[in-house]
Records
---
Amino acid sequence: MSRQQRMEEEGLILRPELKYIHGVPLIKFFAENWERMEGFQARPDDLLISTYPKAGTTWMSEILDLIFNNGDTERSKRDAIYIRVPFLESAVPGRRKGTEELADLPSPRIIKTHLSIELLPQTFWDNNCKMIYLARNAKDVAVSYYHFYLMAKVHPEPGTWEEFLQKYMDGEVSFGSWYDHVKGWWEKRKKYRILYLFFEDMKEDPKREIQKVMKFLEKDLGEEVLENIVHHTSFQAMKENTMANYTTIPLLLMDHSISPFMRKGIAGDWKNYFTVAQNEAFDADYTRKMAGTGLRFRTEL
Ligand code: PPS
């Protein structure tokens, strides 16, 4: 039986509606796995990479795996990124759950999550784990997320761009409101060991941002290794790297012919999608939702 047939038999229904957990909409299969998620045990030396979807998670994951392995690029090709850095809440019929992948990993583990602070299992706070939060401006995330909805059929149908943008502004997309997500983690960083970074800063000067990460992790690997990590994690290098570009995921789950996972990797692509009217409405709504926070994003470089 092919993998595709098996997944269909095991109940993989494409385009399922989102399901709510504590008021946050999630991919249906992830929500149905919630009990197991709540029982998850973090370890004190776990490193969490947390993001709202499409903020550059994979980029940071590759960087972190390299840092953990002293910049050894051959070792970073040992497995696909979603095995090296398991996705905590992932649960798709026919595939191993994030929690199962994590149980097999020796410490120290790097763990990916898209959960908002309210949904993150308490065990991470109890263990005072180090966390890196990577944020990306709301407009580019909307565009990237729309294309991801189109190609990854575990999401509901996105509808038209106009319809998707409205759902995104309303927080009616998987993992909920971008606004609440970035603000929640921004507040939380005041009390916990959270390094809060921005996609746009990484685009502007990846070396500088990777240095911040190394300092946070108390890892000094030297100039040559640092340069090598910058090179290995450039958009082009990662797009060509089958261990980083998600092309090893079955077509049924991610169809790169609709839109590649490694799509453009730039800041400011939103200008090719937002109409003038959409941009005005978005900005007005953004000002309301982000009022009172010191959090500032750049929407172009
Ligand atoms: S996911 O599915 O939420 O984990 O996706 P995530 O990895 O967070 O985000 C995918 C977007 O990040 C871009 N990307 C990169 N940009 C610059 N440099 C590198 N190395 C890189 N790797 C991934 C990827 O292209 C997606 O953005 P868009 O705008 O769609 O191109």
Note: The chain has a mean pLDDT of 96.
---
Amino acid sequence: MRKLIAALAAVAVSATVFASAGYAADKKLTIALIPGLTTDAFYISMRKGAEAAAKAVGVDLVFQGAPDFNPVLQVPVLDAVIARHPDAILIAPTDKNQLIQPLKKAADAGITVVTVDTFIGTGKYQTGAGDADFPISYIASDNILGGEIAARALAKSIGDKGKVFVSNVKPGISTTDQREEGFKREMKNHPGITVLETQFNDDDANKAASQLQSVLARNNDLVGVFGANLFSALGAANGVKQANKIGVVKVVAFDAPSSIVDNLKSGLVDIAIAQHPAEIGYYGVMTAYAHLTGNSVPTAIGTGFTVMDKANIDDPNVARFIYKQ
Ligand code: T6T
């Protein structure tokens, strides 16, 4: 009898949880993924991971985004997605502050919000503090650590001395801000290295290439650059090539598009720090699904890195983290 009461109580508890999460077992859930931009191999890989998870748990996945990494373009996409009222939105917010109010509209409409790759506010969710803690979870790389790894790699390849700079996107993006923070923090441990002023390229590789050449024109003793995301790194590397400085100006790249293989092999790029975007997409969908079906979820999930260089890039266990097109 006692066992029966316990079993009934368990049923009652789970029924309450499902009711509070608004879950109806017969309804097919829809999860929308809004990337930072649609044509970036990083988000294309993230989409593949999200699709794998959606297939595994039987939810519909919608992928909708803007052609550029820009809050002015992302907010209308978000509004259109909110109007379709999916059960959850996974989003890589393109600005820490400018996406808070637009996303609040989704949460107020009863849509579960998870941020992937980037965060809003401080990135600390479900704390009851501030106006941006409403997303249920943040799934991403540890970007401060990534910046530190980049700094250590660059310091090593330049023999711990000389002038370097960070090629970055623009201030206000959580990921790239944190990479720069981690990079500069670690460089404090390398007194022989001077970190010049950061150059912001608006996610435009051509701009990053010409900025590299301008920095070089002002500092002919430049020895290194950290490209803080895919387009910054690609552009900085191209700038080094155009200036005929391969091997003289060392390049540490964040992200790993398919072109990274040739760049590592030719010595144009010394180190590439690959994120695991497919993991981010996979756990993003799984987290939303768990929440929507009445389970508790962690408020943050950290995904890994793979550090690539000339010596390991042919290893299949490394090469599998090259981003998909
Ligand atoms: O580095 C990634 C992503 O983590 C960042 O938030 C924005 O840029 C990328 O998408 C690469 O282009």
Note: The longest strand covers residues 162-168.
